[in-house]
Amino acid sequence: MDLSRFQFKKLQTRLLISLLLPVLVIVLLGGAASFWYSRGIMLDQWQESAVVKLQRAAHYIEMRVFKPVDLLNVLFKVSDRKDIAISPDQVVDYLLVMDGVVSAAYEPADPATAPPAARLPGMGSMDRMNMAEHPGMRFSRSQIASVSGPRYHADEKGRTVIMQISLFGVSEKRLGDLVIRMEFDFLLKDILALGWWQSDMACIVDETGAYMAHTNMTMTDRKTLGGSDDPLEQAIFEKMNTQPFGTVSLKGHPPDLIAGFYKLAQVPWTIIMFADGHKILGPIVTYRNGLALGVFVLAALVLVLIRFHMCRMVSQIQQLSEKAQAVAKGDYGSPIPVNSRDEIGHLVESFNTMVEGLEERDHIRNSFGRYVDPDFARTLMAHPEAGQLGGVRREAVMLMSDIRGFTNMSETLEPEVIVAILNRYFSHMIEIIQTHQGIIVDFYGDAILVFFDPLDEPTSDTVLRAVHCAFDMQFKMPEVNRELKKQNLPDLAMGIGIHAGQVVVGNIGSDARAKYGVVGSAVNITSRVQEQARKKQILISDAVLDKTTRDKDLQVKSSFPADLKGVDQAMTLHVIEPAKPYKTLCT
C-alpha cells in the first residue's frame, strides 16, 4: 500500500486529520456506546413494563373466565349455610344473566333420571332440568362432595369458549356437568386498550398453539400459531415452550411488529398481543435520531472550533515561515503581530526578539565593523547620528600601531606563516582595543587604525582611554612573543602613535554596506606620528599631552621635535610610559 499519498504537505490538513479524526472517532464511539447502553436500559424498562401489562391483561381475562366458577362457589356456600334448595334451573338462570355468558345448561350424568327440560337457545342437544316440575330433585351443597376444575375448548368458529364443570357426590360419583358458553369478545373486551402498549391485535392460544380467539378478523381462517410460516409467530411458539412470558421481535431498527405473550396461571391459555414496533420503540428511535443529530452538531461544532483556532495558529506559523525566508535574504521588515498569549504567541514574540537581535547585530556589523565591542556598539547606536549615513564634526582621539620591521620579515617567511603571525597578534590587540571601547577603523597590513569617540564623556577621559589602551597593547607584546616562540616564530616589536583633533565622525559607505569611522587631517597626522615611534615606544602629540596632565599614572620619558610629512609646521612628540610598573597600573 502506497502511504506517500497520505503524507499531507500542508500543516492545516495534517492538523485537521490528526485532531478532527480522533475527536470524531471518540464522539462517534462515545455516542454509539451511550446509545447502546441507553437502548439496553430502555429495552429492559420496556420489557418489564410490557410483562406487567401482559400480566394485567392475563389477570383480566382470568377474572372474567372464572366469574361463573366464583358464582358457583357463592351459591354452594349459601346452600350449605341456610339449607336452601337450589335447582339446576336456578343456577343456569344465574349464569345466563352474567355478562359474556351466551348459554348455560346442566347435563346430568344419567339422562334417564332427568325429566324433560326446556331447550335453551343455541344449546343444540343440551337440556335444562326444571326443578319446579320435579321437586324431588334437589341441588344443594349437601349433595355435592366436589367440583372439578373447568375444562375449556373453543367452538369451531372461534367465537365462544365452552367451559365444562363436573359435579361429584359423596361417593365420588359424577352427578352431572354444567356447560357454560362464553363469548371471546367479552373475554378480550378492552384488553387491547388496557393491555400491552395499546396493541393492534390480540389472540388466545392453547398449549398446543391452536388459536382459540383473536381480535383480527383477517385471521379467522388461521388454526394454529405459526401455521402460516410466519417467522414472528414461530419465534413466539418456540419461546412459549420454555418461558411463561416474554417479548419477541425480529430484525429491524425498529422491527415492523413486536409480540408479547403471557401464560395464564389457572387456565391453559396464553394471551398474545401484537403491536407496531415503530410505536413501541418510538422513544428509542427518537433517542437514536436525537443522539445522531447531537453527534453531528457536536462534530460540526468541534470542526468549527478546531478550524477557527487552527487557522489562526497555522496563519501565524505561515507568517513565521515567510518571515524567516525574508530574514534569510536580509529583509527584516516589520515585526509579526502577536495575536495570542499562548505558546504560539510566545513563539512569535521570541521570533520577533530574535529578528530584532539579528537586525541589530547586522546593523552593528555593517555600521561599526566586526571589531567593535557589542556593548559599546549598542551605546553608539543609542545616538541617532551613529546609525545614519553621514557624520558630524567633532574632536576625537586616534591611535595607530604598527609592527616594526615586519615588511622585511614577511619577505623571508612563507605566506601561511605570515598570516599565522598576524592572526595571533591581531587576536590579542583586538581584544584590548574592544576592552577600552576603541573603534577599529581598518587594518593596513600589520598596522591598526583605531579611534576613540568621546560621545557624552569629556575629551580628556577619551584621551586617557586611548593612552591606557596603548599601555595595554605594549604590555601584551611579551605574551604574544612567548606564544610565537613556542611555534618557532620570530618576535615582534610594535610602535604606537596617538593624536587628537577635529575629524568627521559617522557612517561612511552606502545603504548596502557602511562603516562607522573617521576622516580628516587628524587621521593622517596620527599615521605620521606612528611612523616616528620606535620599537616598544608610544608617541603622543601636544594635543594629547595637554589632556593627560592630570593623570599621575603616566610620565613623559622624552620629547623631540619632528617634521611630519603633510604637516606645515614641526610638531613636538612625546615618548610616554607608565609612571610605575604597569601591573600596578592595571590593578
- Give me the secondary-structure category: alpha+beta
Low-pLDDT regions = 115-142
Instruction: Name the overall outline.
Output: rod-shaped
Number of strands: 18
| Radius of gyration over C-alpha positions, nearest whole angstrom | 61 Å
Q: Percent of residues in helical segments? A: 40-55%
Number of helices: 16
Q: Report how far the terminal alpha carbons are from each other.
A: 76 Å
Largest sheet: 8 strands, mixed
* Average pLDDT level: 77
Q: Descriptors for this entry?
A:
587 residues, alpha+beta, eight-stranded mixed sheet, five-stranded antiparallel sheet, 44% helix
Blueprint (SSEs and pairs):
Blueprint: H1 11-65, H2 67-82, H3 88-96, E1 101-108, E2 146-147, E3 151-154, E4 160-168, E5 174-183, H4 184-187, H5 191-194, E6 201-206, E7 211-214, H6 231-240, E8 245-249, E9 257-263, E10 269-276, H7 277-280, H8 282-328, H9 343-368, H10 374-381, E11 390-403, H11 406-410, H12 415-435, E12 439-444, E13 447-452, H13 459-486, E14 494-509, E15 514-519, H14 521-532, E16 538-540, H15 542-545, E17 554-562, E18 571-578, H16 582-586
Parallel strand pairs: 14-16
Antiparallel strand pairs: 1-5, 2-4, 3-4, 4-5, 6-7, 6-10, 8-9, 9-10, 11-13, 11-14, 12-13, 14-15, 16-18, 17-18
Helix pairs in contact: 1-8, 8-9, 9-10, 12-13
